[in-house]
Each structure stands twice: as structure tokens, then as C-alpha cells.
TrEMBL record:
Record-linked PROSITE patterns: B12_BINDING, B12_BINDING_NTER
UniProt organism field: Salipiger pallidus
Gene name for this UniProt entry: mtbC
Official protein name in the record: 5-methyltetrahydrofolate--homocysteine methyltransferase
Highest rank taxon of the organism: Bacteria
Any one Gene Ontology cellular component term annotated for this protein: cytosol
The organism's taxonomic lineage, starting at the top: Bacteria, Pseudomonadati, Pseudomonadota, Alphaproteobacteria, Rhodobacterales
Length: 210
């Protein structure tokens, strides 16, 4: 699709207005919000990620791309939420301490809301208390953690170990996700499940709540 190709370029160049416009045009053409999210926005961000890794793009450029992506996500969020049924569970989600990546976490939060979950977003850089205190205060069913760095993913174990120490581990379903994680890591730290992407997070949450 030519427009999607154009949107990949616009995202790469951090052109927020163009991304917003592209999302609106795809909606007018009858695209499903979820397809726009995954094919146009996440697809484009993958290209950005690869060039960031390879030293072709740098932090300021990636921030602009992230900002453009957020512009597009802002339009899709209410549309994804619309399809939601009555609340089927409550989730507290946040990016772990030392980590400021939030696009993937925001995506998971959006998709969970769209699927009928109530989501309390803790934002980025969360110490263990944030998860535990908020989950208790909100009587949440699920604690979700996101980490995008190999240096911050071990912190997920700190949170789970602290829950164990306090005797509250089994009061919650614990889901973890983020690009550097895998199934094995999720098991090793004692999470209930590792979620490869936002769609898997929704499916996993649903099945573990049932
Ligand atoms: Co950062 N960064 N970054 N970065 N960044 C990565 C992660 C990196 C892989 C890039 C690279 O080198 N290829 C690399 C990590 C290397 C490693 O640890 N192995 C990296 C680095 C090194 C860094 C810095 C250290 C760079 C520096 O300063 N030298 C620095 C760290 C700052 C910090 O956190 N302390 C840094 C900074 C940044 C920006 C600020 C510039 C920006 C973040 C902006 C923002 O988030 N607001 C940024 C970005 C954008 C990226 C890349 C390019 C894209 C991440 C992203 O948003 N992906 C990334 C490269 C890449 O991943 N390709 C990179 C799109 C998003 C939809 O995917 O987050 O994977 P993802 O989420 C998915 C799934 O993983 C899953 O579902 C999501 C949707 O499907 N998921 C969950 C995620 N969280 C979940 C939680 C769940 C369930 C599923 O809970 C239940």
C-alpha cells in the first residue's frame, strides 16, 4: 500500500501531523484500527528501531518518531476502546525502574482497554512500591510490567520476589513483556506469562482471568 509506505517514511522523519493525517485517511478507507496500529505504526517503528540499532538514527530522531507514533495512537485509542465490553478485569501496568520506554506499554494498555479491561497506567521508571501499592489500592487482578532494556528486565524479578516476601504473589496474575524478554525469562523470574505482543497480552489476560 502506497500510503502505508509513505507513513513509514513520515514516521521515520518524525512527521506527526502527516502520521495523524495518514491514520485518518486509512480509517476513511475502512481499515480496522487494529490493522492501522500494527501494519502502519508498529511496522514503521520497526524500521526506525533497526536503524537506531545500526547507528543510522540517534536518540533525538527516535524521540521524534516516537512522538509521531503517539499522535497516531491518540486517534486509534478511543476507537480500540469502543469495541470493549463491560469491564472483565483490572490491570495495573508500568515500565520498570530505570527504563523510560513506553510505546509498547501504552499499546498494551490501549489494547487491554479495548478488550474490556480497566487499566491503571503507572507510566515509566517504576520502583517496586508503585506496582504493589497501586495494585492493592485498586484491588487489581493483574500486574503488568514492561522492560525494553536488557539492563532493566532483571528488575521484574525484584518486583515478583518482593511480592513473594510480602505473601501477596498469588493475589495477582503477573504478566511481563518487552522486546528483550522471552518465554524462558518469564518462567525463570516467576511470572504467570510472558506476552510477545499486545494481542498476546490480551489473550493471555483473558484466559488467566477465566
Ligand atoms: Co531505546 N533502546 N534506548 N529508546 N529504543 C531499544 C529498546 C534498543 C533495542 C535499540 C537498539 O539498540 N536496537 C536498545 C536496547 C538494547 C538492549 O538493552 N539490548 C535501546 C537503547 C540502548 C536505549 C538507550 C540506552 C539509548 C541511549 O541513551 N544510549 C536509551 C535508554 C533510556 C532508558 O530507558 N533509561 C533509549 C532511549 C530511547 C528513546 C527515549 C529515544 C525512545 C523511547 C521513546 C518512548 O518510548 N517514549 C527509544 C526507542 C523508541 C527505542 C526503539 C527504537 C523502539 C521501541 C519501541 O517503542 N518499539 C527500540 C528498538 C526496537 O525495539 N526495535 C529501542 C515499538 C513497540 C510497539 O514495541 O516496546 O517491543 P515494544 O512493545 C511490544 C512488545 O514488546 C510487547 O507488546 C508491545 C506491543 O506489541 N510488550 C508488552 C511491551 N511491553 C509489554 C508489557 C506487557 C506485555 C507485552 O505487560 C503485560
Amino acid at each position: 500500500d502506497e500510503l502505508v509506505e509513505q507513513m513509514f517514511d513520515d514516521l521515520y522523519d518524525g512527521m506527526k501531523d502527516e502520521i495523524v493525517e495518514g491514520v485518518n485517511i486509512l480509517l476513511e478507507r475502512g481499515w480496522q484500527p487494529y490493522d492501522i496500529l500494527t501494519k502502519a505504526l508498529v511496522g514503521g517503528m520497526t524500521v526506525v528501531g533497526n536503524d537506531f540499532r545500526d547507528g543510522i538514527l540517534f536518540v533525538p530522531e527516535v524521540l521524534l518518531a516516537a512522538n509521531a507514533m503517539k499522535g497516531g495512537m491518540g486517534i486509534l485509542k478511543p476507537l480500540l476502546a469502543e469495541t470493549g465490553a463491560p469491564t472483565i478485569g483490572k490491570m495495573v501496568i508500568g515500565t520498570v525502574k530505570g527504563d523510560i520506554h513506553d510505546i509498547g506499554k501504552n499499546l498494551v494498555a490501549m489494547m487491554m482497554e479495548g478488550a474490556g479491561f480497566e487499566v491503571i497506567d503507572l507510566g515509566i521508571n517504576n520502583p517496586v512500591e508503585n506496582y504493589i501499592d497501586k495494585a492493592a489500592a485498586e484491588k487489581a487482578d493483574i500486574i503488568g510490567m514492561s522492560a525494553l532494556l536488557t539492563t532493566t528486565m532483571p528488575y521484574m524479578k525484584v518486583v515478583i520476589d518482593t511480592m513473594k516476601e510480602q505473601g501477596i504473589r498469588d493475589d495477582y496474575v503477573v504478566l511481563v513483556g518487552g522486546a528483550p524478554l522471552n518465554e524462558e525469562f518469564g518462567k525463570a523470574i516467576g511470572a504467570d506469562a510472558y506476552c510477545r505482543d499486545a494481542a498476546v497480552a490480551v489473550e493471555t489476560a483473558k484466559s488467566l482471568m477465566a
